[in-house]
Write a structure and sequence with these properties.
47% helix; two-stranded antiparallel ribbon; single chain; 436 residues; 11 strands; globular
């Protein structure tokens, strides 16, 4: 009986091994899932994507069905105005929501807050795809969405500070666009003609709004908002920058400049009342549109002039896309981000005048056909030299801009810039201390 039982066991065991081998021989040779299994897996996936009412969203929305067809992933897109977007995201993330998968983010406005609160997923492990090619993105655009070596978002929309100038006025006066800030001031003074309601220079003078455009002047003088973790807007370099910017608009700017953010400044230039204007390159359509501008064909573009300590215009990511750290659809979310920021899609969006972060697209005819040729050259050159932020990288960005803006206003008014800068720096340092 013992021998029969032993033989039965061996027969059963042999049949089990044979079945396992048969199953094994029918399995795929690779551990990677087949394309069919990926499609099946994605059939039930719906991404909830929260976006801003922005030209990038308008341009990519008609292309989303293409992504859905190729990936099998469904997309539910929600759009909000900027302030509503921030409020919506903050409310849901504070409540621990995992229903948001991918969202648009302003890295310089709320990036630090979202990152410190752990609301953004670490995308670093996803970005090694050689075909997608992170190295094609301009360095400063990626740096806007990094914390050390951690990448918490991917750039979608970029902008740089440049110089707009009146080509016809410069030609009439046999003047070349300024290469340095000193030349900028001299030309502005030379062309300033307030008796005929024409001004040598216009830029933002409104307190908080002016800070971002002042930043390139600050960098050109060797200054910065924060140095070694400390407030640095009362350094000799920063004070010289405040004085220069203030004198420029005081001596050659229009009346009412203290009330000007970009719509007012751009509007004055577009109506033919200023020779030069420094601001973001993203504003250019407002200056060329014949319904908004009388100087469209007369507008020239130049790289932001060099300061005493170098040529460093800001080159920032104004918008990026990020992933909710609590999303349960991270792989699918990355598939959308990878698609939306691919070379092919970025090129399509730039055909609709949405300035993207990929240098190869800026170097290609299809990626630049919607932009003025001179502007493309300026953008490509600025991409190489720009700094990745145009405001202090803090949580309470608006409060910081208000503080720093007081020194800008004092300079335009002709007041005691050094005293204003020291007082603003004291307040700014307290803000930094409170956040740390």
């Amino acid at each position: 009986m013992k021998k029969i039982r032993g033989l039965s066991f061996l027969l059963v065991f042999g049949l089990f091994i044979g079945l396992m081998a048969a199953c094994s021989s029918n399995a795929p040779a690779s551990d990677e899932p087949s394309s069919d299994s990926n499609e099946d897996k994605n059939k039930d996936v719906e991404l909830r994507i929260i976006a801003a009412n922005h030209p990038w969203t308008e341009a990519i929305e008609p292309l989303i069905p293409q992504f859905e067809q190729e990936s099998g992933i469904k997309v539910k897109l929600e759009k909000y105005f900027e302030d509503q977007l921030t409020q919506k995201l903050t409310t849901e993330f504070t409540a621990g929501s995992d229903s948001i998968d991918v969202f648009m983010i302003r890295p310089l406005q709320e990036g630090k807050l979202f990152n410190l609160n752990g609301w953004v997923a670490d995308l670093t492990s996803y970005t090694g795809d050689s075909e997608w090619n992170l190295s094609d993105f301009t360095e400063s655009s990626v740096n806007s969405l990094k914390d050390g070596e951690k990448i918490f978002g991917i750039p979608t929309v970029t902008e740089r500070e440049i110089l707009y100038y009146r080509k016809d006025i410069f030609e009439e006066n046999n003047i070349e666009p300024p290469k340095t800030l000193d030349e900028l001031y001299e030309i502005a003074k030379q062309l300033n003609d307030p008796s005929n309601d024409f001004y040598g220079m216009v830029s933002r003078g409104q307190r908080a709004a002016a800070v971002t455009q002042f930043s390139s002047y600050l960098y050109g003088f060797g200054g910065d908002f924060i140095v070694d973790g400390k407030a640095a807007i009362d350094t000799p370099e920063a004070i010289k920058a405040f004085e220069f910017y203030g004198n420029l608009l005081k001596d050659a700017g229009p009346p009412g400049v203290l009330n000007m953010s970009w719509p007012q400044a751009a509007g004055l230039f577009a109506q033919g009342k200023a020779a030069m204007y420094t601001d973001a390159d993203s504003i250019y359509p407002n200056l060329l549109d014949p319904e908004k501008s009388v100087v469209g064909e007369k507008v020239g573009f130049a790289v932001f002039p060099e300061g005493p300590e170098g040529q460093t215009p800001y080159n920032v990511t104004s918008w990026g896309v990020a992933m909710n750290a609590k999303s349960e659809n991270k792989d699918a979310g990355w598939e959308f981000i990878k698609w939306a920021t691919s070379k092919e899609i970025v090129a399509e969006l730039q055909k609709k005048s949405v300035p993207g972060p990929r240098q190869s697209v800026w170097d290609s005819p299809e990626g630049t056909e919607a932009f003025p040729e001179e502007l493309v050259q300026v953008i490509s050159e600025s991409n190489k030299i720009g700094k990745e932020y145009d405001r202090p990288l803090v949580i309470k960005v608006n409060e910081a801009r208000d503080m720093i803006g007081t020194a800008i206003v004092t300079g335009i008014e002709g007041g005691d810039v050094e005293a204003a800068a020291k007082e603003a720096n004291k307040q700014f340092q307290q803000l930094l201390d409170d956040e740390n």
